[in-house]
Amino acid sequence: MIKSIVKKVARKAGFVPLSEVNMWDRRKSNLLNFQYKATDKEWRQLMMYFEIINAIEDVPGDVAEFGVAAGISLVSFIRILRVLDRGKTRDEPRKIYGFDSFEGLPELSSHDSATDQLRSSPEMKRGGYNYPESYPVLFRYISSEPNAELVKGWFEDSVSVFFKNNPHVALALIHIDCDLYESTKIVLEHTWDRLSPNGLILFDELHHPGFPGETVAFREFFKDKPGQYTLHNIKSLPAKRFLIKKQ
Ligand SMILES: C[S@@+](CC[C@H](N)C(=O)[O-])C[C@H]1O[C@@H](n2cnc3c(N)ncnc32)[C@H](O)[C@@H]1O
Questions:
Q1: How many CB atoms lie under 10 A from the CB of residue 125?
Q2: Angle between helices 135-143 and 72-85 (to 10 degrees)
Q3: What predicted TM-score, i.e. pTM, was given to this entire model?
Q4: What is the mean pLDDT of each run of 10 residues along the chain (247 residues)?
Q5: Which side of the chain, N or C, has fewer Cβ within a 10 Å radius?
Q6: For the chain, which residues make up each domain, given as ranges?
Q7: Which ligand 1 atom lies nearest to the CA of residue 123?
Q8: What is the pLDDT of residues 54-67, one digit of tens each?
Q9: Can you tell me whether residue 99 is helix, strand or coil?
Q10: Burial of residue 132, with CB atoms counted within 10 A of its CB: 0-12 exposed, 13-18 middle, 19 or more buried
Q11: What H or E segment, with its residue span, contains residue 135?
């Protein structure tokens, strides 16, 4: 009884049960599931990653993400880069580096407390965004990707060591999704000089009321760099921001 009411409501809302979709090819079911079931927000998120990777097409350098967690954005970048690079004569495909403790967030600072606690994520605490059950799948996937590499550790230890040991690395895209003041500051301080002219920084929480630390770190770091970048909204997800480093 309840099942049939739910079905009726779902059908009215435009959902077609997969069993009734013309399954000309069962292998397409993942895509069909995604098309029908993914929310607009999920569609927008994927479109945002596409928009960003598309925007670095002519910018030399690799991709570095700070804040990987279970790998939603990292794996999206890997897949989209693979699609866009296909058929091109790129001698050296871009590398993608993913930095994370894989133990969740470190201690929060005073800059990280949202004025309205209701608007900050319940994960905003030491150890938040830790998904140990997802790491084996991510680690296995990355180990089979020749151009991807995970850099495990706390940024305060790992980031400076990585760039010291890899003086050749230039970046076309930096993705900052580490939520916190100290983490964002460390990343900006160690990566800005490595970002190529016209390179992008995608911020996940810039101007987000629930994660004020990222915005404070951004403001402090760029205070003495006026005119060195331009700030933009993402078309597919206007609440998200990215900057382009001027030449
Ligand atoms: C919101 S999650 C990242 C979400 C991910 N980009 C996605 O698409 O699902 C934030 C991540 O930043 C990492 N993180 C934040 N500060 C860090 C630090 N100082 N050192 C290492 N990892 C850090 C946490 O471990 C956590 O996995």
A1: 14
A2: 20
A3: 0.89
A4: 71 65 65 91 96 94 97 97 74 90 96 74 92 97 96 98 97 97 98 98 94 96 97 95 96
A5: N
A6: 40-245
A7: 1
A8: 999 999 999 999 99
A9: strand
A10: exposed
A11: helix 135-143
pLDDT tens digits along 91-148: 678 999 999 999 999 999 999 987 765 567 889 999 999 999 999 999 999 999 999 9
Top CATH class, 40-245: alpha beta
Which string of DSSP letters, residue by residue, matches 192-220?
A: GGGEEEEEEEEESSTT-TT-HHHHHHHHH
Atom 3 (ligand 1): residue with closest C-alpha?
67
Residue position matching structure tokens 């990222």 = 214
Q: How far is CA 94 from the centre of its chain?
A: 17
In sequence order, what are the beta bridge partners of 203?
176, 241
* Residue having the nearest C-alpha atom to atom 13 of ligand 1: 67
Q: Which residues of 199-238 are buried (b: 16+ CB within 10 A; e: fewer)?
A: bbbbbbbbebebbbbbbbbbeeeeeeeeeebeeeebebbe
**Which tokens hold the place of 81?**
């880069």
Pocket, ligand 1, Cβ cutoff 6 A = 67-70, 72-73, 100-101, 104-106, 129, 154-155, 177-180, 183
What pLDDT score was predicted for residue 86? 66
Residue 204: both structure tokens together: 């996940």
